[in-house]
Every structure is written in structure tokens, then in C-alpha cells.
Amino acid sequence: MSGLLFGMGDVDYSGPLAEAYDRGRRLPPATTRIWIEAARRHLPTGSDPVLDLGAGTGRFLRALGEGLGAPIVGLEPAAGMRALAMEHIGPAISLVGGTASKLPFASDVFRGVWASQVLHHVTDLEGCALELRRVIKQGGRVLVRGMYEALPTQWPLVRYFPGVVSVHERFFSSLEQMRIALLCSGFSELAHECIEQVVAEDAESFYERTAQRADSGLVLLSDSDFKAGLATLRHEIDHGRCIGPISEILDLVVFG
Length: 256
Prior knowledge:
Blueprint: H1 3-6, H2 17-24, H3 29-42, E1 50-53, H4 61-68, E2 72-75, H5 79-85, E3 93-96, E4 110-116, H6 125-135, E5 136-146, H7 151-154, H8 164-171, H9 175-184, E6 189-200, H10 203-211, H11 216-219, H12 223-238, E7 246-255
Parallel strand pairs: 1-2, 1-4, 2-3, 4-5
Antiparallel strand pairs: 5-7, 6-7
Helix pairs in contact: 3-4, 6-9, 10-12
């Protein structure tokens, strides 16, 4: 994910952060299966392709292809992220560059869009929503996955990095802003689920994941705040006050 697509000039996902993202945002296989099952519940059946919008390093590409039994197209603007995502390319999976407000696809192509932790980065939400409306076939769905409704309680990292709440409020679009853009472009909101996911099986894995500083909210914290939060997490693990598995709650909002 790059500032060009998401309006975050201070976060460049084309550089070294791509490798940190790949290491720090991986999900346990069981967690990935939870999300694929959710996608299957909400997407219409058929053989038409599904778009993975902002595919990043491709953590959902192959799972979507296998779970949905359909061609998957990943859109990712950052070259560094695309290079790592190529490792997940398989049969009926393709990967392209492009921007959310000018999708490089014909109209009425996709039966669904998987928008995982991406729309809150988009600067031109109205343009993106209109483009999604254009490329989705009649009856198709947009699945918006992310942590939006109650960040202070849903995200375990807030305990150690409280500054990320104000970072998200300052730099990222809210769920309500995303909702308005999609509704104004002709979508209707069809469902809203809160889904719990395990991000780390044990505390040490959680620490290693966090230390990658792969989340854009952590990137935008000051270095001193990040180091202080990481030290607090280390202290709580060493004293048995942080134990696994570590879980968090994300929103899944469906539009069609």
C-alpha cells in the first residue's frame, strides 16, 4: 500500500516496509479460514472473478482462490508489496498494479470485492466507491474488513500504544465516511458482523509480530512512543501479564 493510492505520504509500502508487513501481518491458518468462510457466506455463488482490493503481500490471494473456487484478481499499487505477493500466485490468480479511484478493469466484471483493511486508507473515497460500483456485476458484493467501530477495545495493541487511537482519527477514514461514500454511489448496506480472530498463538509470537512495526498506525507513531510501547509489552510478557492466544475483533461490513 502506498501513499499514492491511500493519501498517506508518510508511509511508503514500496520500500523495506513491504517485507516487515509480510512478516508482521501474517495470520494463523485457522484465522484465515474464518475469513474465507465469512466471504463464502456473503458473496454470490458463480464462476465470475473476485477482486482483492489492496492485496498487499498477498496473504489472502491463494486462500480466496481455494475457498471460493473462482478466479482472483489482486490489485496492489506498491511494487514492493506486489513482488512479495507473487509468491502466492497460482492457478486462476493474477496480480496487477493500479489505483482505487481508477480501477484498470472493464465494467461489470467482478461478482465481489474483498476490501481487507484498505478502504480507510483511500483519500478519494467517492471516486473509489463509484469505481467499485462500475466494475461489480449486478448482484455483486463489496466486503469491507477492518477494525473500525471500537478501536480502543477491539485492538489489543492500544494497551501498549495508546497513541494509535489519535493517529487513526487523524489520518484514516472512519467506517461512517466509507459507508456514506458507498451508499451515495448506489450500494446498500446488507450486513455488519463483528468477528473475533486470533492473531498470535502465544505472547512471544505477538511480540515478534508487533516488533515488525508493520501496521500503518504504528508507523505513524513517533519512534519514542513505539519504543516505549514495545518495552511495556516486553515487560508484561516477562511478568506473565500477557499470555496467548492473542485475539482481536474486526468488523465485516457487506454492501451490495
